[in-house]
Amino acid sequence: MEQNDRTSIRNLILATLLGVILSRFSIGSLVMTVPVLLVCPRIRRTDLKVLAYAAMLLGVIIWTVIQQRILIGTEYWPTIPVSLYLPVSTIIGCTVWTLGSSYSRSSMRKFFWAAIPVFVMGMAVALYFASEKSLPVRNALADGILMMFPADSLSINLSSVIRTVVDMMALFFAPMGVLMLALPIVIADVNVNRFDEDWQYDFANMKLPDHYVWIFFASWAAALVCNLVKAIPLWAMAVCWNLALTMTVLYMVVGVSILVAFARRRTAAITAGRIVFTVVLLCFLPIVNAVVLVGLPLLGVLETWIAFRSDN
To answer: Of 200, 298, 207, which is closest to residue 254 (Cα–Cα)?
Structure first.
């Protein structure tokens, strides 16, 4: 084994350990796979990459179970798998993304396939949350949130509001997982490929197949019908809204790609990383974030009929 290979493997081990540690912090868990994503391009052996993700997955699961072991054997034990949804789905999605890099340079294709297991897991959690079996978990979660607001701190009764919000979480698990998958992938990719003009061109030309727009419209139509017809059960509403919002996230990624294409048409000095950073920053600005969150998916959908990047 060459010295470079040994160094890369050592870095992969350190990145895996760092990922497990980051997973224990609320903000760190959002980027826990970034260290491994940064190191993997230097590793030639696929089995080592898979082993790194598997070790991270095992470490996250064991650590979470140990921390929440008091719930085992009680009616609240499903809180453990629910709390594992985001970190586990992110690790699995990043594994698929990394393996896909060996077969395709297309960022959109790789991200789509990586998002599939995340969507499936998110839908499973959403369906559980929409069932009566999840009532103890939902009540415990609502009570935990209410504890942060002392009864005499506000002039209104937040109990019903908080419980409604917790119940509505069933509508967002899948898109939230796909969005959390996109974050570390984009952070790692824009850093690894910041000087790669071929990658910059590929990022600026990400696109979903045209017929996917009908899935987008159909899912949103079904979601709106669920809101209008009160007799529709929560599980059906959860399926429709999770699909609609997941498609919205995918088209948002396409919208960001179109912005990159616009910017690079003016000057190649503007990289995808700068555009992504700007978009993320705008998402934290009140009012402006609403325009961004609505405008980007709309831009991606409209490209089905309008060739925004014809000259790119």
So the answer is: 207
